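In the previous chapter we treated chains in isolation. Here, by contrast, the input contains three separate entities that must be folded as one system, with a combined length of 716 residues.
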Amino acid sequence: MFSTLDFDVIRRSIGYLFYEGMTFTLTLTALSALGGLIFGTLIALMRLSGYKLLGRIAGLYVDFMRSLPLVLVIFWFYFLVPYIGQWLTGASRPIKVGAFSSSLITFIMFEAAYFSEIMRAGIQSISKGQPAAANALGMTYSQTMRYVVLPQAFRNMLPVLLTQTIVLFQDTSLVYVLSITDFLGAASKVAQRDGRLVEMYLFAAAVYFTISCFASWGVRRLQARISIVR
Amino acid sequence: MIELRHVDKWYGPTFQALKDCSTSVAKGEVVVVCGPSGSGKSTLIKCVNALEPIQGGEIILDGIKVNDPKTDLPKLRSRVGMVFQHFELFPHLRIIENLCLAQEKVLGRSHDEAMAKAMKLLERVGLKEHAYKYPAELSGGQQQRVAIARALAMDPIAMLFDEPTSALDPEMISEVLDVMVDLAREGMTMMVVTHEMGFASKVAHRVIFMDRGEIVEDALKEDFFGKPRSDRAQKFLSKILQH
Amino acid sequence: MNYNWNWHIFFEPNPMGTGTYLDMLLSGLWLTIKTALLAWIIALVAGSFIGVLRTLPSNTAQWIGFLYVEFFRNMPLLVQLFLWFFVLPELLPRAAGLWLKQLPNAPFWTAAIGVGLFMSARVAVQLGAGIASLPRGQKQAATALGLTTAQTYRYVLLPLAFRIVLPPLTSEFLNTIKNTAVAITIGLIELTGQARSMQEFSFQVFEAFTAATVIYLLINFIVVTGMRFLERRVAIPGYISGK
């Protein structure tokens, strides 16, 4: 059965797959993780702020995002972002937003909900004596958060944050539904053009698998190192 | 220097942690606060720099009303040093960084100035060679000495100690108390929550005894150890001094 | 926003001749529920088996459990569905492949099995952790009573572990429902898919997605409420979540 397979198609398309596809996937993953972490931290701070209304809004946002399938959220933003852009810029018609920007906004907003829960757990894991000591030294709320609480929360949660980023890396493949050329999109385009679905999808699976395995192995090692230090 | 007038504090609607507490600490005075656990002594000292809000009465620190919403609390707190039961060094920062952080971010000192000050104080508490270690690499007694140095680095006008030795192994208590005794003898204004009656009899000017949220006794050291007036203080003293 | 809202669209006939647009969405909902339930059964059965393997004192069992989980966790769900849908039939012997390809409802079966296996790895991790969190004494006590390993798991460890992991399993069940939407890529027209086709036919983008969103929120609400009820029903008085 393997005699009919032609794995040379991978060699022929490798440049396209990696230069276009994988670059898109990795850039999207990295920027979404960064943006999601920043927004997620802000949401977590809102939830823990002690201002009831602010906390409620943040909580609703998180629950809302976590109730929806990512695919639906991708569609939502794909159609919504042009209108938001129009509203923000005061243009006369919905503005054109590129595939990358649209996906980036989607993933930042979506991941922020998940990262915020991680950061919230991280902040809550720090004993109350730490912010008290910072306050006693005369630090303001923002100084306390910036120099004392958040660095510790981030460090404690680093393995979980990285694991979530691996999930994010895999989830970016869902931009396939918008026919975007991420890694899977590139593989799929070659597969359809050359009629080589089996080879291309096997290869794509292998690549995702290898990268994710290496990354989660790295996270496990990091975790082991952290648990020794403590 | 520190003045408390009719301070009331509630946790929730039902539990009153402090009942009508009034006392004062003069400049250069060392006041020891003691009492059984749950008596409110830690709460009392945390109210002084508003780590705990109060519901009634007023607290005045160096002429500034602490429980006034208009008071710039960070600024006020930066002028009062506090030492905690569990040290509360920042575990993600090296010892020297623990000492420099607030100097630079709160007082706005230059890095060099902060470093010089930090090194001087580390030398004073005998921990200069540990400057570049992390807190977790030090013993409890060493960590508490660092915490004292961290508070001193802010050039405080007064120091608050919240049970500074009660989380320490017995053999480490004296190294911390020695630093505190030196500080008292230099004329630092100090309010100290502690069970260390040896420390109290050595350097305290006054002793406050608390029970169930009330200041039961507020007396000169000699009077307190000589002839405590209240039954509760007598019982407490006899229990503590038995060992 | 120059967008023409038309909320009546739901009651207008859809171009497929299967009733109104609302009927379209509801048939999508029904497919989502069917797929998710079948996937969840697969995830629970396979996940429990693998979860137990991960806690057995045999290296081989643990190794198998580890490989299984790593295999399903380290590939995007979308890619896994492609493997089952496009690749598997080609790699099987000709007759079997042909049979698979001609299977009616192939997207449904592929989605249920694919999502089920994907989720089983997560169930296995949760359950394994739940079993590992039980006090060691439980297993020893069961063994001391003469129970076999299978009996120990069946009567002691699993009943306790499942109660512990009920809250995380709730969110895994919700994830299963949400993940069925990925099957849109292999042609399963479930709820998200129907919303998408409604948008393509009617151009009422936001009405279609709003409706789908509301339905997903309702599903979440119902599942969470139901699971809370279940948690209370199976809670053991005085034990963990019995509070």
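Chain A has a mean pLDDT of 91. Residues 8-47 of chain A form the longest helix (40 residues). Compare these points with the single-chain example from earlier in the chapter.
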